[in-house]
Amino acid sequence: MESTISAFSANETALDSSSACYYADKHRDAASSEFDLTQRRAAAQVDAKGKYEPCLSERGIPNDVLAKLLPGDDIVELVEPKVSGGLGYRFVKRAFDFVSCGCALIVLAIPMVVIAAIIKLESPGPVIYSQRRVGKNGKIFNVYKFRSMYTDAEARGAQWAVGDDPRVTPFGKFMREKRIDEIPQFWNIVKGDMSLIGPRPERPAFCQEFEKRIHGWNYRTSVRPGLSGLAQVMGGYNLLPKEKVVLDLEYIEHRSIVMDLRIILKTLGVVSTGEGAR
Fold this sequence. Notes:
Order of helices and strands: EHHHHHEHHEEHHEHEEHHH
Number of helices: 13
Structural class: mainly alpha
Strand content: 5-15%
Radius of gyration: 18 Å
Strand order of the largest sheet: 1-2-6
Shape: globular
Number of strands: 7
Helix content: 40-55%
Number of domains: 1
C-alpha cells in the first residue's frame, strides 16, 4: 500500500487542540486510524527508549521494535517541502537561539553543578554523555545529555525495556520525566548544531530504517533540528513516526517567528505537565 502526503495550507495551521483533528480530514492515510491507542502508545514507548538505548549503531534496531514503530506494510511517499523563512527570519532565529541559550547556561550554571554532583554521588561514571544524531542536511553531530543510566547498563540487561528500566538511575528517571537531562543541549544550540525550535534530531539508525518505509523522511533535515518542535507539542503519545514527520514538514513549510514563539510557549506547558512526545 502506498500513500502520498504533503503538508496542508498555511491557513489550516493552528497551535491549539483542534489541530490534532486535521489528520482525519486532510491526511487520512498518514493518520493510520486503523491503529488503536494501545499500538500508538507501544510505538511511543519504544521510541522514547530508543533515544537512550546504548550500542544502537553496533546492534541495530530489533525487528519487533521496528514493527511497533512502523505498524502495517504501507509505504509513505512524502512531498518535498519548500523551506520557508527568509534571511531576516534566519538571522533573528539564530540570534535568539544564541543569546537565550547562552544566558540560560549562565543562569543554570549553579543548578547544573548541583545536578552533576547528584549524578556523581548516585553512580560512578561521566556526568554528561554524547550521542550521535542526524543534523541539518544529514550532517552527523553529537548531542549532549546528563547521564541518566548506570555506566554498566548493558550488564543490567532489559534492552528496549518498557516501564521500569533497571538500567536507569533513580535520579535519571526524575531527570527524564522533567526533561532536565536535556539541559546540556543548550550548548548544542549555542554551537549551532541545533535550534530551540525545529524537527527533533533522530539517531542515524532510525533515520536509515524510517527512510525505507517513509520515502522523504530525510526532508526533515532541511533545517536545523530543534530542542522542541511542532510534533512534540501537538502530537503527544498519539502519533506514529510517519505522522510526526508530516508535522515536521508542515513546520518547515510555514515556520515563522510567531510560530516559533507559540511552540516555545506550548513546550513550556508540555514540560510542566510531563506530557508529550520526546
